Amino acid sequence: MENQTFKIANGGGKLYPFGGVWPEIADNCFIAPGARIIGNVKIGTGSSIWFNVVIRGDVGSVIIGESSNIQDGSVIHVSSGGINTQIGDDVLIGHMAMVHGTTIEDGGFVGFNAATMDNSRICARGMLAAGSLLSPGKTIGEAELWMGRPAKYVREMSPKMLENNVFGSNGYAKLAQKYLSEYLSLKK
Ligand SMILES: CC(C)(COP(=O)(O)OP(=O)(O)OC[C@H]1O[C@@H](n2cnc3c(N)ncnc32)[C@H](O)[C@@H]1OP(=O)(O)O)[C@@H](O)C(=O)NCCC(=O)NCCS
How do residues 37-58 score in pLDDT, each as one tens digit? Predict the structure, then answer.
């Protein structure tokens, strides 16, 4: 269709262009109803974007890897001046989180209602606890737990906590495929 202002993604969420650039979403991603993804955004295979998430790639780019999940009501944005957002594989971002100009490496975890600010980073398997605020330029090291507003280092993640987080992220990847197959069968 010419002059299309949006497209419906697999799952029912909407994709919008910005500056002539459309989001690129791998085929088996689940993009839930109410989700809106705008502009320079790339999402890898098996990732899921849940109800009412906004991902806005306008003044920079958002790249999300494989089998990651962005849960309901979260907002993912970038900052002008080249502060992009990069999210790796098997990352879990809890409900109502705000991720702004941040890099999150593979297996990283952002608890629900947490926020990350410009130029912050969560290294592989690092965790920002629910409700916490990672201030600008701060880095959570590999497999570290940070907590509070502003977030501070608490301790190394225990093997049990790391296992729980892998369980959570795998669980979301599986749940997304169930939602996706239900959506595709109802759509026929
Ligand atoms: C970080 C987390 C794993 C708990 O860590 P923990 O060290 O095992 O925490 P505990 O329950 O043993 O509590 C230890 C102390 O930290 C406090 N605490 C726990 N979680 C906290 C949080 N998110 N922010 C601030 N303080 C917290 C507790 O109140 C307790 O304080 P006290 O010693 O004064 O009583 C948990 O709070 C969390 O963030 N889980 C993520 C849940 C989530 O977002 N899931 C995504 C959706 S699926």
Answer: 999 999 999 999 999 999 999 9
DSSP for 65-85, written as a single string:
-SS-EE-TT-EEE-BTTTB-E
Q: What residues contact 27, with CB distance under 8 A and at least 6 apart?
A: 10, 45
Superfamily designation of domain 7-187:
Hexapeptide repeat proteins (2.160.10.10)
The atom of ligand 1 lying closest to the CA of 168 is 48
Residue 78 has, within 13 A of its CA and on its CB side, a CA count of 23
Pocket around ligand 1: residues whose beta carbon is below 6 Å from it?
71, 94-95, 111-112, 129-132, 147-148, 168
* pLDDT in the model for residue 110: 98
Q: What are 99-128's pLDDT values in tens digits?
A: 999 999 999 999 999 999 999 999 999 999
Is 70 exceeded by the pLDDT of residue 2?
Answer: no
- The one-character DSSP state at 18 is B
Helix (H, G, I), strand (E, B) or coil at 56: strand
